[in-house]
Predict the 3D structure of the following.
Amino acid sequence: MYSIEELTEIADKGILNLSIPEEPKRLYEPIRYTLASGGKRIRPVLVLAACNMYSNSVDKALYPAIAIELFHNFTLIHDDIMDKAPIRRNQPTVFAKWGSDIAILSGDALNILAYQLLAKSDKEILSQVINTFNKIALGVCDGQQYDMDFETAQYITQEEYLNMIELKTSVLLKGALQIGGIVAGAPQSDIIKLGEFGLNLGLAFQLQDDLLDAFGNSSTFGKKIGGDIVANKKTFLTIKAFSLAKGKSLELLSSYFKAEGVDPLQKVQEVLKIYNEVGVKEITEEKINEYFDNALSALDKMSVNGEKKVVLKSIAEKMMNRDR
């Protein structure tokens, strides 16, 4: 079995050694820039780790693993255009550096390169790999549209929000793991369980992201605390707070999310007081633990022996211990 570190090195080398065309320079330079900017490589590592559960070699999973990472970066480039985001991974975004026109085209090219790599899968499994990948791709688009719709929606239910993050975040983890299992010839029952593992892990991960934005440590979380509150973003915490707050607390909460020109520090402090008053932190932690336990339960039910599950379990624990 490969270790997490070894799988990460395999994925990183494969991505950085890709043969990216030189011309047109303004099309491909942003792609090289994006891929060189790093990232945790979680998704390609999940592909390789899932494959390694059923095969001693991960070579045949490398192209699909890289394809998943290329697709992920394509979505980030386009997300940054829609959000007009200037910074990602502590560097200027492609949108900020080259403008929206080049960012759109480079993102499209990155997506096409992903499909080219997927097409190198063995013919016997190619159709299954492509179909799984297409479900991922369409699901992410669905999730992004819901996320944009929520920006102008007055009310969002907990169920609507969870469905959105399942599509926007979790389906990519689910599909990455399933593709790894497909490439390695895993039994269909285990491919289903790999999907359940990834889906629940993704939900736990995103809810923890929401939680850390409000209650995390900025030095370890890597983001400024309270950014979602300042941006009036509808997160699991916000939705729960609006459903639980009463009287003056609800009025105050509503006023802070409607008012313009409010001091950001004051807004964060006051909203956090209401979060604490209604127990949002504890409720979110309970939901995170529920999804994480569901993920581990799915992993436990897979047909391989315990030793072969260690790496996936370690990846899950590492993902969930950013500031916990």
